[in-house]
């Protein structure tokens, strides 16, 4: 069975653990997880690792999630990997900015494992 | 014509929005239901406090404060791990709870959701400290409990722009 290589970008290590657990509960198996505490770290991971899926927070120090997304596109990293933003920002404008920057999905915190499953699995099937 | 935030300050300061935010965050992320308490519980000497700032059309902060044992219980529920002390992961978890409470609360009004940003959380640990707020525009201070864990959530607004 092909492993699903996933990058989780969030400045909170607790949130990274919660997201990983939600992905496993969603049935993503086998799952290989790469973690990054900032957009800058995330870019460094993507320069050396191939991933199938990226989940990223928006509000992070140094480089926020939207700039991280723009840099992924500009540097042509992770081609074909869907990006899902997981964030406390809930306004339509934030969602619009995320989609414009290249995100394929959006999950608002707080979230359930079921919501992660509903947003992520169709993107992986389509990729 | 849509109302300005100042004209709808009564909606912004509605205490039910804070209760709904607490219920949403704790139910979804911890799987627990919280009860609102009229008075604070007797405080543990060691406290953990997280602060997330608001900036934009509303300036202020969301403050989450709890005692040592409750903080470890919250972090344990979030992560599925056990904690014996207030380590970096517990502090991180409390910061994230405050972050989500701030986001859920400001999301209750579309104008606020779109035009008010959040800071990254700051977490303070220590004993015997008090929080003082000078002349807020409005302030909500609620006490809650789930099982035997007590906590306090405060929304302080020091400006509506």
Helix/strand structural class of chain A:
alpha/beta
- Going by CATH, the architecture of chain B would be 3-Layer(aba) Sandwich
CATH superfamily placement of chain A? Response regulator
- Please give the largest β-sheet of chain B: 7 strands, antiparallel
Q: Tell me roughly what share of residues is in helical segments of chain A.
A: 40-55%
Largest sheet of chain A: 5 strands, parallel
What is the CATH superfamily classification of chain B?
A: CheC-like
Distance between the termini of chain B: 18 Å
Q: How many helical stretches of chain A?
A: 5
Mean pLDDT of chain A, as a whole number? 93
The residue fraction in helices of chain B comes out at 25-40%
Any overview of this molecule?
The complex is a heterodimer of chains A (127) and B (161). Chain A is 45% helix and 20% strand. In chain A, helix 1 (13-25) crosses helix 5 and helix 2 packs parallel to helix 3 (65-74). Chain A has five helices and five strands. Chain A is globular. Chain A has a single domain (4-126), classed as Rossmann fold. Chain B has one domain (9-160): CheC-like (Chemotaxis protein chec, 3-Layer(aba) Sandwich), CATH 3.40.1550. By secondary structure, chain B is α+β, with helices and mostly antiparallel strands. The mean pLDDT of chain B is 91. Helix content of chain B is 35%, strand content 34%. In chain B, strands 1, 2, 3, 4, 5, 6 and 7 form a seven-stranded antiparallel sheet that branches. In chain B, a hairpin with a 2-residue loop joins strand 6 (138-146) and strand 7. The interface between A and B is medium-sized, with 24 and 27 residues.
């Amino acid at each position: 069975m092909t492993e699903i290589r996933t990058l989780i970008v969030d400045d909170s290590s607790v949130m990274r653990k919660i997201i990983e657990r939600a992905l496993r509960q969603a049935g993503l198996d086998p799952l290989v997880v790469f973690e990054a505490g900032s957009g800058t770290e995330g870019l460094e991971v993507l320069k050396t690792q191939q991933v199938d899926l990226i989940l990223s927070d928006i509000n992070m120090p140094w480089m926020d999630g939207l700039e991280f997304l723009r840099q992924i596109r500009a540097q042509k990293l992770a081609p074909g990997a869907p990006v899902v933003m997981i964030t406390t920002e809930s306004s339509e404008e934030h969602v619009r900015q995320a989609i414009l920057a290249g995100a394929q999905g959006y999950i608002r915190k707080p979230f359930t494992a079921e919501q992660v499953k509903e947003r992520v699995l169709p993107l992986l099937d389509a990729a | 014509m849509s109302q300005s935030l100042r004209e709808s300050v009564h909606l912004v300061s509605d205490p039910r929005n804070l209760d709904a935010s607490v219920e949403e965050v704790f139910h979804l992320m911890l799987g627990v239901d919280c009860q609102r308490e009229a008075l604070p519980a007797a405080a543990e000497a060691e406290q953990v406090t997280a602060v997330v700032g608001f900036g934009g059309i509303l300036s202020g902060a969301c403050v989450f404060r709890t005692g040592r044992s409750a903080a470890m219980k919250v972090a344990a529920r979030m992560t599925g791990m056990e904690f014996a002390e207030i380590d970096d992961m517990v502090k991180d978890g409390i910061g994230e709870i405050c972050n989500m409470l701030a986001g859920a609360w400001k999301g209750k009004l579309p104008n606020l959701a779109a035009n008010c940003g959040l800071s990254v959380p700051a977490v303070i640990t220590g004993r015997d400290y008090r929080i003082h707020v000078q002349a807020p525009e409005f302030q909500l201070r609620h006490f809650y409990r789930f099982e035997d864990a007590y906590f306090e959530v405060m929304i302080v607004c020091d400006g509506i722009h």
